Amino acid sequence: MKSHLNSFLFALLCPFGMFFSFLLEADPTKDPFESLHGPNIYSQDYINQQPGVLTLSELLKSVEKSYPLVLAAEKLLTETEYNYLAAEGAFDLQFKSMGTTKPIGYYTNNAADTVFEKPTPLGGTSFFAGYRIGRGKFPVYDGKRETNDYGEVRAGAIVPLMRNREIDKNRADLRKADIDRKLAELSIQKLKIEVIKEATKRYWKWVASGQEFLVNKDLLEIAKSRQQQITQRIKLGDIPKMEGTENDRAILQRESQFVSAEREMQKAAIDLSLFLRAADGNLILPSTDRLPIGFPKPIDYKGLELDKSIKIAWKFRPEIQDYEFKREKARVDQDMGYNSLKPQVDLVVAGSQDFGPGSVTRAKPELEASLVLNVPIQTRRPRGMIGAAEARIAQLDQELQFSKDKIKTEVQDAISEVIASAKRVTVTQSEVELARKLEEMERERFSLGDSTLLFVNIREQTSAEAAVREIKALYDHHVAVANFQASTATFLQNSPTP
Length: 498
What we know:
Blueprint lengths: L1 H24 L15 E2 L13 H11 L1 H21 L5 E9 L6 E11 L6 E11 L15 E9 L8 H67 L6 H32 L20 E2 L10 H11 L1 H24 L2 E11 L11 E9 L5 H68 L5 H35 L11
């Protein structure tokens, strides 16, 4: 009778003994199964609590300084800067000189003429100053080449009164070069938005894959740590032998999931290394010890205002400014066409003074003013330029309107995505809490002998899957935030996320 009583008490206490012996092996202050959800935590200060963690800002600084496509785009800006410098060269000071000699003939003479010319953007006005000297015998018809003994100094200006007064080829080329420079800056901004968005997505993918890896790692460790207790209970006859086989199956299943999760984490790190670079441009493969412990909290989507966000996007998106600059460039061609329709009326003013012995008729200073008139008879070229420019402007107006509509839909979709993903995070959090409660209850039933390991494994697997769904929901939310930032060009505004 005593032996039967002892057997009954041992069988009754064995499940509790197995369970509490498992607890004693772990941290007595922590639920040993709590680690199943442990990696998926988030805090607003989640990064600052971890020394050495790879932050998103560090990644984006690396993109700014070392990403090849960004550096290549900056070379385009350098090219346009040099093109602008070349356009400014149209207003460079020029020096011209000519010398002639007639050593044989009835009229033997020598003459030299030098002049400095300086075009300016001041109403198309050009200035000139020069010196000439003519010695020897000159025919009457060539008398202007003759000077007094020390030569003649002259200076003057050419002032357009109609054509080329408001604009001319030099100023048009300069304006176009300046616009090209601004367009190059916008190209860099567009590229940076796309690159930053992609880098941000890959960063959060890396964070998510690290958390999924930890979830699967904990799930595997739970099954392995339970193996010894399962074996002991089978030996004592407390549970059937098939429970050991079930745990072996669970271990193999979880090992397979663990290997897959590890591969996904490695792949995410490799993908991220394309954007994470050293100062010399070499790729940096982020190690697992640089993984953040989780995601930041979802943003407060109630603060997002659709109309305000659309206006911000229209103001800062490079595409809008790109079309505006292209229209301005087309208007330069239009202005040049209207300029060519005008008659050319130039006022030329020049003063001169001869020095040294010679003719008294050249001894006094002279001032001369003249008008140069050039009237176009046929105007097909300027009318063609004007028509082409107007057609181009009309085309750009339609493209600008479509671009605004497209940006509007992108902002609407991005806000919708942010809101939906934030709500999904809340739903998955509730799912995880319920799944963990069911898991704990099923584990307690198993310890009392009212359940089987198959159901415990199912509950644990369900909890892990719920945790992974929450991780994916958080990943999707932060990707949605990145899409919203890209749609409103927040990346270029140095302003915090709404």
